[in-house]
Design goal:
Alpha-Beta Plaits; 4 helices; alpha+beta; 27% strand
Length: 113
């Protein structure tokens, strides 16, 4: 399992629109995420900063992202509503609104010996 954390910025003038979209995420978008082996997905808000965390349980994250999520017509349509609400960080990947965060510590289920 791979843990992924990301940040993006929310356009203050589109805050309510973005929050309304996420109160009722489209079932097809959720289905695409599940099909791509993404679990435990959460988005948090602090001021105008969005923080996302999810876990990837598949074998080829890049392929699942391209072949399932990015190829899904309903997810593509979802992004036409959500993308304008977000401001990318300068280090966001090309075409992405989100910037990946490196994991610097994790409390494991097993104590260190």
């Amino acid at each position: 399992m791979q843990r992924i954390a990301q940040v993006a910025r929310l356009r203050p003038e589109l805050r309510e629109e973005y929050l309304a979209l996420h109160r009722e995420v489209w079932p097809g978008v959720e289905a695409a995420l599940r099909a791509a082996h993404i679990r435990n997905y959460s988005i948090y808000l602090h001021g105008d900063m969005l923080f996302a965390y999810y876990e990837y349980h598949g074998a080829d994250f890049a392929a699942d992202l391209e072949e399932i999520i990015k190829a899904d017509p309903e997810t593509q349509r979802w992004w036409t509503f959500t993308d304008p609400c977000q401001i990318p960080w300068p280090d966001s990947a090309e075409g992405s609104r989100w910037s990946d965060l490196p994991e610097i510590w994790h409390l494991s289920d097993e104590p260190r010996v």
